[in-house]
Structures are given as structure tokens and as C-alpha cells.
């Protein structure tokens, strides 16, 4: 705050965009360079629910006492206030946290995820911790209902459910953490809640050598139903690199991720404008960029 001359701390700009654009998902996929052996041999796709969870939480430091969390319906004529939770706080120092997990756009997330997995010919998995966090059951149920009713037949026909017994498989987040390390052949996709997606995609990045080999694409929805897509490099606001730059140090902010983000945005623009010439141009650019990265690795630069 002092450095920027602010009177109050600002929230995350990424969080503001995700909320403002009715954030459906943050898609993060592995980038592959022909000729370079990275962590995963085949593509890994990831969908991280773009809203909800700890990122929008309210909290207070408190002491001993009683906590009561109450929900008030928007239309009080249609329902009564509901006590969500009540508990006695016995410690002299505690932190109380309240957050919600919106579910209205999980169906949209499901369509994005399953279609992408089908197009990329990878096996889909849904990840939660619903065995302990019972409130995550709704996320899994919506994902499974969409899959069974609209995508299962296509996945069966493509042979993409042979390893999962012909069904959409659910993974507990603990198991997903271990499988990401083990499944280095790639060829899978995962969809999960906001926080789990944040942590698990970091793990995917490490297995695949670097966040520089991971894409990041925020997908939201306009009021008219059209999808909004924002492409970026897969890293945060990199304040540490900014301070290093101010000290005169050499820095690098994921140049490959930035280039791939630019080409992704151009691809999306080409689709919106129905312009095959732009699409052809970005495909050529993408090929050149990957060839340049390969040449740099080959020459030890």
C-alpha cells in the first residue's frame, strides 16, 4: 500500500475479472514443443472453476464466544432465514471464515471441459474432496449429469472410457495429487473447484518442467450468452520480478506463455470473425515460435 500510495489494499485483479465476467473456468493446458521431452508426453487439460471458494471469503479475527452464520433469502416472502452453522468458539484467538461455492455456471463449465477433452481425445476426470467436504457433492452431481446425458456416448465411441470402466470417473483430490505425478504419459483432463485447481495446476506445471509450458485461459459469459475468453501467461502478478527489475536485475516473465496467449487470443478472434486467413496466420506463427524454442534448447541457449 505504501509503495503504491494506496489508501486501502486492492483485491486481486484476476478475481475481479473472474467475478465481473461470470467466470466459468480457467483452462490450463500443457504446451508441447516438437523435439523437446517435457514432463508429459501427451496433452494434459485442466478446468479450474473460476469463482467461489476461499478467494472471495470474508473473515474476522475473534476470541471466545458464539458464532452464528445465517442465510436470508432474497425474497423473504418465499422463505425464512436459515441457520447455516452455529458453534461455540473456545480459543482466545480464532479466525472465522465465510465463503460460498456458486453452482449456477458449473453446467457451462461441464460443457467446456467435456467438449475440450473430446476434441483433444483425452480421458476426463472430475476432482473433489466430497468425501469430507460434503458441500462439494453438488459440483460432482452437475458434472456427471451433463456428461451422462450429452457426452457419454461420444466418449464411449471414441474409446476414451476404456480405462475408467465406461463411466465418468471421480477422483478425490488427494488421489489426483498422486496420479498427476504418475500419469506422465498424459492424455487426461481434470476439472475441479477453484482452490484445488489452483494447487493442482501448479503441480502439473512442475511435472511439465515449468509454468512456462502451461497455458492459462479465463472463460466467462456475457449477458447475451456468448463466451468471453481472456488469454494470459500462467503466472500471477509477479511483484517479485518487478522489484528485481527495479534493482537492475535481468528478469524473464514466461515469454513462451505470453506468445502462446497472444496466439490463442488471435485464434479466438478468427473464430469470432469467421476468418480462416487469421487462423492460418496464427497457426504459422505458433509453428515458428515452437521451432524457435526447440532451436534454443538444442543449442543450449
From TrEMBL:
Residues 2-299 form the Isopropylmalate dehydrogenase-like domain. Gene3D superfamilies: Isopropylmalate Dehydrogenase. SMART domains: Iso_dh. GO terms for biological process: isocitrate metabolic process; NADP+ metabolic process; tricarboxylic acid cycle. It comes from the Eukaryota. The keyword Oxidoreductase applies. Keywords: Magnesium, Manganese, Metal-binding, Oxidoreductase, Tricarboxylic acid cycle. Belongs to the isocitrate and isopropylmalate dehydrogenases family. PANTHER family: ISOCITRATE DEHYDROGENASE [NADP], MITOCHONDRIAL, NADP-SPECIFIC ISOCITRATE DEHYDROGENASE. This is IDH1 protein.
